[in-house]
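Action item from last week, closing it out:
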Amino acid sequence: MIIKPVTGSSQKLNIIVLGYIIRGPLGGLAWHHLQYVLGLSLLGHNVTFIEDSDDYDSCYDPATGATGKDASYGLEFARNAFNTIGIGDCWAYHDAHNRQWHGPRAEDAISRCNEADILLNLSAVNPLREWMLLISVRALIDTDPVFTQLKHLQNKGAAEHARQHSHYLSFGENIHQAGCTIPDDGFTWLPTRQPVVSECWAGDHNHPDKFRFTSIAQWDSYPPREHNGKTYGMKSESFTQFLELPLQSDHHLEIALGSDSAPREHLKSLGWVLRDSLQVTKTIQSYRDYLQHSSAEFGISKHGYVSTHSGWFSERSINYLACGKPVVVQDTGFQNWLGTDRGVLKFENLDEARHALDEVKQNYSAHCQAALEICHEYFDYKHVLNNLLDTLYVSNATTKLVANV
């Protein structure tokens, strides 16, 4: 999958992207990070992806279900993933346990940090080592709004880690706006969103033989969080009011479901079709194939995203759109910035969900076309990443100006 770079870009930057592929070698997680690296590379920037083991047992092996220090599974997964999208030489992994570097950029990873203009720490899941702290622009990209802010309020170490960054951007696009109740952690957050490289998802957008609404989900990613008497829950909390949806519609509703706490037998008894999420997400290719062979997505959001009117929009849903697949997704307040009733259909309750499913199936071709148009207008990497870089540079210039007054 070789994609030609965009020509005519302005300033070429040296950019470090910190992410989570080797320690979390799953298709969906990988695509989230890969599209930042690939998109920035296509814009003409010199991009290095770096991942750090951190100082605890953090490497997940889907083959065994174990988490430990051994990164061998993840390193092979990363090689396959980066080679598949045509940028196989841009990454390195720092094994802090053994004080070793792995990957194509193992020999010059630190020197690349010394030369970097910008560091993007996606999801803040990497520590900032001493060779990163001299980079003047260090942006924390919050992909889990509400829960990131709660972590900063409740965990002193997490707050100290956040303060090592110079800029703060969040997928909770309504943050600091009226009606949004994401708890204030003291940081000034600016809105951003997931970029998508549509060429990676191009394929047959025709009507599938069997009409299937699908999604890939974790029932419980971690325990609910409490703050000032309020509870902020997971998808399991949001799902309660939609459990009987298959009984009240004639649609095929399928979930590639993760999490040991998921009530699989109960969900099956209500008509949900369940798939093994580890099989679907085994590689970036298997993940993409699953989306491309679906008809549309039916997606539930974390209770915390919904209850705070966060404006969050799923990177998974964006990938469905890039495949030309409509999405029917629970409302998180994203209509504040994504105003449409075609391609993306929101719902708040069971009746709205049922109606939206019917509408997509009845007017499928129009919704497929709208999905592609929305993806291009709102999530195309050229728009999203150039806006991100502009935001960082304008903000950084303003900070320097104020400091010099």
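Closing note: Residues 24 and 60 are 6 Å apart (CA to CA).
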